[in-house]
Amino acid sequence: MFNRLYVHIPFCVKKCHYCAFISHNPEKGERAEYPALLLREMLLHAPAARPLDSIYFGGGTPSLLHPLQIARLLEKFAVYFGLSADAEITLEVNPGTMSRNSIKEFRDAGITRISLGIQSFDDAFLARLGRIHTTEQSRQAFHDAREAGFANISIDLIHSLPGQSLDQWRAELRHAIQLSPEHVSIYGLTIEEGTPFARSYPANSPELADDDLSADMFELADELLTSAGFEHYEIANYARSGYLSQHNSGYWKRDGYLGLGVAAHSFLRDGYGVRFSNPDNLEEYRRGVTSGRLTRVGACQLMQAEAMSEFMFLGLRLAEGVDLRAFEREFGRVFESVYGTIAADLVRFGFLIQNGRVLTLTSRGILLSNQVFEKFLP
Ligand code: SF4
After folding, report:
1. Distance, CA 355 to ligand 1 centroid (Å)?
2. pLDDT per residue as tens digits for the range 13-38
């Protein structure tokens, strides 16, 4: 069972220096063929039991598809899966791949929400990251999206960039606030193995932010964005009231989602949940889909202990926290009989706070969230 759809578009104009995602050069004719593969894959899945509440085109660079390709996909998804009248339909957009016209056409195609991969408002950092756009293009893309009628725009920013100072990060945040988006996602840079960044910045590189500076940047984002009226609703996400990402909130609440496309992940709400992904090799994906066969990589039927663990560490990411009554309804177990000691210790050491039957992370717990989540692993 699923009520959300993720569609992976694996093409990028050029690989960013920090990125470990699998992406393909779009010049090989594959981009024209890819939507047809997605539709063939769609037909291999059973239709959803209920209409979709959200669709998310992620990548890669989904804005490399032509708006007419997106329109056709949405039309087919709506017929096959059904689509709620107020469904949130997000397109990730790289500011270097869109024009005033194309953004209008994406809106006409049915996209309701834009997620702009801005990452930085500093051209020197953008060049160092290997991004294909400038700050001016990002600003223009934002204004063009507004002018095209998008009332729900999210922007992504990365902090702890090599050599970045706290003052430079403050300037980034001010720039973001000044644009006045509805949603901001904030990520700390992670150095991924096998990327050019991993070679340029080994673990002991003096240019990398240490834990204290990263924590200061995280706290500064919280201070400036919440003062500007954003709600800090998830560890890395801020939104104006009424503009929380419906699709991503579904991930944290363990809604079922189907992933279409190369390397797309799925989580179906069958039993305690089934997780699997598609092959991350385009050729293997194409072979499977064209021969009418779904190749599920790493398929895993969750046991109760795994599902309870996920319920905790995904739910705790949200500012609304984990409702222990919902836990008990879902699993038929008294919360304290499963995690009573762990939760009590985390409350005692200041990582969690319990308010009635709701558990939430404290500010300290947010900063050290990975260590908190580990305690709930089966
Ligand atoms: S555009 Fe996104 S997916 Fe593509 S290489 Fe850059 S960071 Fe990776």
Report:
1. 40
2. 999 999 998 888 876 678 889 999 99
Distance, in Å, from the CA atom of 285 to the CA atom of 106, rounded to the nearest integer, reads 26
Of 230, 251, 272, the last residue of a domain is 251
* Sign of the C-alpha dihedral computed for residues 157, 70, 84 and 265 taken in this order: negative
Phi-psi region of 163 (alpha: psi -120 to 50; beta: other; left: phi over 0): left
pTM over 0.90: yes
Query: What is the domain range of residue 352?
Result: 318-374
Any bridge partners for residue 366, and if so which? none
Please indicate whether residue 19, judged by its CB atom, sits closer than 6 Å to ligand 1.
yes
Q: What letter represents residue 253's amino acid?
A: K
Q: Which atom of ligand 1 lies nearest, measured to the CA of 60?
A: 3
The position carrying tokens 């309804």 is 329
CATH number at residue 26: 3.20.20.70
Q: Is the peptide bond before 256 cis (omega within 30 degrees of 0)?
A: no
Number of H helices and E strands in the chain, helices first, is 15, 15
